[in-house]
Design brief:
The radius of gyration is 14 Å and the shape is elongated. The protein has one domain. By secondary structure, the chain is mainly alpha-helical.
């Protein structure tokens, strides 16, 4: 997986987590919110390990902008 793709997935996961939080009336202790939050944490750990392998990585912000626009 490319790092750009990982960044897009992380952005989409953040958006989905925000939607889950809103759907559950901002109850952060809700099991559904907790499970998805843990899933996002695991994915972030994977991403940071990938970035450590290649520290000169440059983000393609156009990918992130497109992801946010498509998800909203």
């Amino acid at each position: 997986m490319s790092k750009d793709f990982l960044m897009v997935v992380i952005a989409k996961m953040h958006i989905k987590l925000n939607e889950l939080i809103e759907k559950n009336n901002f109850d952060l202790l809700c099991e559904e919110v907790q499970l998805y939050s843990r899933r996002l944490d695991k994915f972030l750990s994977y991403y940071y390990k990938a970035v450590e392998r290649e520290p000169n990585f440059e983000y393609d912000m156009h990918l992130l902008d497109n992801t946010v626009k498509c998800s909203v």
